[in-house]
Amino acid sequence: MKKFFWPLIITISLSLGILLGGFITSASYRAKGVYFTNHNKLKLNRLIDFIEQEYVDKVDTDSIVDKTVTNILEQLDPHSVYIANEQMKSVSESMQGSFVGIGINYYFYRDSIAVIKSVADGPALKAGIMAGDRILAVDGYKLFGKQVTNDTITDRLRGEENTKAVLSVYRKKTNEELAISLARNVIPLKSVDVALKLDNNYGYIKLNRFSSTTYTEFNTKLKELLNKNIEGLILDVRNNGGGYLDQSIKILDDLLDEGQVIVKTVNKGGVEKVTYAKGKGLFRDKPIYVLVNESSASASEIIAGAIQDNDRGVVVGRRTFGKGLVQRELMLGDGSAIRLTTARYYTPSGRSIQKPYKNGIEEYNNDLRARYTHGELYASDSIKVADSLQFKTLKGRIVYGGGGIVPDVFIPIKGKHGEDTTIMLMRSGITSYFVFEQIDKDRLAYEQMSSESLIDFVMNDNRLYNRFIKHLEQNKLYFKLDRRKELVKHYITAEFLNQLFDEENYYRWLIKSDDMLEKVDKLIRNNVE
Predict the structure, then answer these.
(1) Cα 226–Cα 229–Cα 233 angle in degrees, nearest 5
(2) Which residues pair with residue 288 across a beta bridge?
(3) What are the tens digits of pLDDT across the range 25-54?
(4) Are strands 185-188 and 98-101 parallel, antiparallel or unpaired?
(5) Are 261 and 274 in contact (CB under 8 A)?
(6) pLDDT-based confidence at 459, cuts 50/70/90?
(7) How far apart, in whole angstroms, are the C-alpha atoms of residue 81 and residue 472?
(8) How many Cα neighbours within 13 Å face the side chain of 70?
(9) For FRET with 499, which of 41, 243, 429, 431 sits at 20 to 30 Å CA-CA?
(10) Is a pLDDT exceeding 80 seen at residue 444?
């Protein structure tokens, strides 16, 4: 790969979360007695029936219907979407915040399932499954060999709650073959990646989505941080594409004073619903900083907009994605669903942060690439704002509508000459895979290291760096990284900590080179709130 276009990768990796983010579920419209009897609306049914009965060749009419529904929704807006039944399960699990399984993170390494680590308190960990173990079979069904697919692995490892499974396991580090019995159970998909008390005595909470469990997780972690006597809070919603709006509202209710506006929504009939803070929250008197970037969307933008418009804290980072549409979900009876835009939401000052989509979905989806090309991610004076869309915060500060939340303090992407691309590469799966491969060669030795000795070893061993470059070349990725060798080592070290220790060790090391947190630290020292 001669060139590496990070905006395209960001768009692909985050499109699902952003497109599905910010919706409100509803009961099936059929339960409400909604029936479509207009003759024009029956044309599609008649056409499909005619094709099935008379067309000269065999046709997959289900596929035709899926494409037709998708095309219809694309004429409306970028966030009204159709979710096919085969996708609906994984989407629902992500939004529910859990699934039923055995609780492992794994690679299909070469030709077998290799465990990276077992999930805390999950069935696999309790049964004794260790990092580096190979799962060869489940209940006698073979799970190794080139013919095994990801769908097969998922089907065999997951199942109904409390169902039993016997795993055939090869433990490489002790050269043992084991039969391990366990019962599948609910495995949480965490919304809170980490909650830390930093050296500046501020709490740091990183949110990756807004699922049905997000507020509960946030509230629990905030209480833990308050028990550690934090002096303020840094809420990180970078790369958070949104989700359930009610979860962002509950979080803001913990942060705002009674009577302050959280969000406004306006439906097709022009009916405005205003949501106010109840004033009984946990964290209403201490400073707040909200970290955002170009991939913070929907519910993330509700939080940033409410904090900014109420002059409650400081928004730091880059202009957010710009999604201000609310969806409701309609199940279609075959496991598929439609998420249809039914309202627009507005920040407390009245701003719609939905970016324009009148020029079509393709241009809309290319917006992040356009921001990169126009230099907006590198310089605040390149941010396009509409002077005609001026609004005022509670204290009279001017803020702008028309597409995303413009931060109070702008932080450019790190480095104009490839450093941003390097960071994208280092946070990708290819780095994780490389680190697993290195650990797997001598797991016993690595597991005997403390986190401090591991950091010292990885940061000072050029052989690991050289192996990583060779690993990239073997995967046809050719980068000139020597100028950024220390940055590459930093991220390799972070991944070693992630696989051998836990998220806290991983994040504590990773944030040592975080530009936004460095800026927040300076703002705290200068009493900017």
Answers:
(1) 60
(2) 233
(3) 444 444 444 444 566 667 777 888 888 888
(4) antiparallel
(5) yes
(6) very high
(7) 36
(8) 10
(9) 243
(10) yes
Residues, the chain: 529
Helix, strand or coil for residue 75?
Answer: coil
Structure tokens at 175: 């050269």
Burial class (CB in 10 A: 0-12, 13-18, 19+), 96: middle
Rg of the chain in Å (alpha carbons): 25
How many other C-beta atoms lie within 10 A of the C-beta of residue 498? 20
pLDDT tens figures, 311-328: 999 999 999 999 999 999
Distance CA 93, CA 478 (A): 37
Domain segments of the chain as ranges: 6-96, 98-188, 419-518
Global pTM value: 0.88
d(CA 65, CA 80): 16
Cα three-residue angle 298-358-374, rounded to 5 degrees = 75
* N- to C-terminal Cα separation, the chain: 45
The model's pLDDT over 79-115, given as tens digits with 9 standing for 90+, comes to 999 998 888 888 888 888 899 999 999 998 888 999 9
CATH 3.40.50.720 fits 98-188, yes or no: no
Token code pair at residue 495? 């991944």
- What lies within 8 Å, CB to CB, of 82 at 6+ separation is 66, 69, 70, 73, 336, 337, 338
- What's residue 3's pLDDT? 41
The rounded mean pLDDT for the chain is 89
d(CA 176, CA 178): 6
* Structural tokens at position 270: 């022009």
Distance CA 115, CA 439 (A): 12
What gap in Å lies between CA 338 and CA 327, rounded to an integer?
9
**Tokens coding 465:** 């760096």
| Half-sphere exposure of residue 177: CA atoms within 13 angstroms, side-chain side | 3
Q: Which residues are catalytic?
A: 298, 309, 323
Please say if the pLDDT value at position 305 is more than 60.
yes
- Our CA angle for 63, 66, 68, nearest 5°, is 110
